[in-house]
Amino acid sequence: MIKNMEIKFWGVRGSLPFSYDTLGWARHSENVLRSFFSQGYRQEEHISQFISQQPVTRLGGFGTATTCVEVHDGNSSLIIDGGSGIKSISDQMQFTGSNVNEYHILITHFHFDHIIGLPFFMPHFRKGCVVNYYSVQSETESIIRGLFSKPSFPVTFESLNAEIRFHHLTPHRPRQINGFTVTPYQTDHPDTCYGYRVEKGGKSYAHAVDNEGTRLSRAHLGADGGLYEKADLVFFDAQYEEADMGVKKGWGHGTCDRGFEICSNFGARQILFAHHEPSFSIDDTLKQINRAHQAFSEKYPNSKLMWDFAYEGMKVKL
């Protein structure tokens, strides 16, 4: 029996992990408390009602960890990218004694924010675990080996207790991985990066960060347009806004405007924006969302596309 495919976002920050410092969180808490009273609440029993009426991101922000996404359906799962968010996956794992536990990690590219968490993924250190890496790039094994090496990390690759396997993928060619159909497509990024379309049970997830979105039409994307074709969910890079692109052109990160256009051109059903700018406060990102609302309503007034900004811990069932 095929269950719903569920996507969980363990890390959505771009470039490097980010959090307020202690005083920053104190100021944010003060602002939330002021909102409690300014909205007319006074009693302790009103706290839950107040919280339930606020956007969760207004209270808790969008997250601190860099890119890591888990796709699962029942007992089968895939992990896409090993940013610092992968440690949170590792922290909640329960290992089943002497049974073999097997894991499947898709790597888009090797910028540090997408691999920073891999040495802290605990299955690497446990006997009886098998960790499978999948990528298009031929240098994957040498780079992963290099993460587990002194002096930058105390445990060497050769001393890991798990069995580590490396698998090569071919662009545009579907591959069966742990019960999912996975197809790599190249994104618009200065260092070669591959997004992944993951399909199962008639549902499709398109992982499309890091991606500047310099190709938007069917004619320009060619075969790479298959990443987006009628996707149920697109995970798209919106670290910047169009006003930034005069300076940041060629940096490999996109905008909401470009995500909207791609989804319109390819008939995608839903898009979540991520790879959030690490220098942005919660209010900065909320302002970015407001500007995106304005742009979307002006250009696509009749569109049924669902969209939002992803946050750490968010789950979407397809």
Describe it for me?
By secondary structure, this protein is α/β, with parallel strands linked by helices. It has a single domain (6-18, 63-93, 101-317), classed as Ribonuclease Z/Hydroxyacylglutathione hydrolase-like (Metallo-beta-lactamase, Chain A, 4-Layer Sandwich), CATH 3.60.15.10. It is 25% helix and 24% strand. The protein has 9 helices and 14 strands. The strands form 2 sheets. A 7-stranded mixed beta sheet has the order 6-5-4-3-2-1-14. The protein has a 7-stranded mixed beta sheet with strand order 7-8-9-10-11-12-13, with helices on one face. Strand 8 and strand 9 form a beta hairpin. The longest helix has 18 residues, at 282-299. The model has no long low-confidence stretch (mean pLDDT 95).
Summarize the structure.
With 318 residues, this protein is α/β, with parallel strands linked by helices. It has helices at residues 22-38, 47-52, 56-60, 86-91, 140-147, 218-221, 245-248, 256-266, 282-299; strands spanning 6-11, 68-73, 76-80, 101-106, 129-135, 163-168, 175-177, 180-186, 194-200, 203-208, 233-237, 270-274, 306-309, 315-317. The strands form two sheets. The chain has a seven-stranded mixed beta sheet.
Mean pLDDT: 95
- C-alpha geometry: globular
- Shape-level CATH architecture: 4-Layer Sandwich
Share in β-strands = 15-25%
Q: Work out the radius of gyration.
A: 20 Å
Helix content: 10-25%
CATH T-level topology:
Metallo-beta-lactamase, Chain A
The strand line-up of the biggest sheet is 6-5-4-3-2-1-14
Total E-strand runs = 14
Order of helices and strands: EHHHEEHEEHEEEEEHEHHEHEE
**CATH superfamily grouping:** Ribonuclease Z/Hydroxyacylglutathione hydrolase-like
**CATH class identity:** Alpha Beta
How many domains in all? 1
Instruction: Profile the largest sheet.
Output: 7 strands, mixed
Low-pLDDT sequence parts: none
Spatial gap, N to C terminus:
15 Å
Structural class: alpha/beta
Helical element count? 9
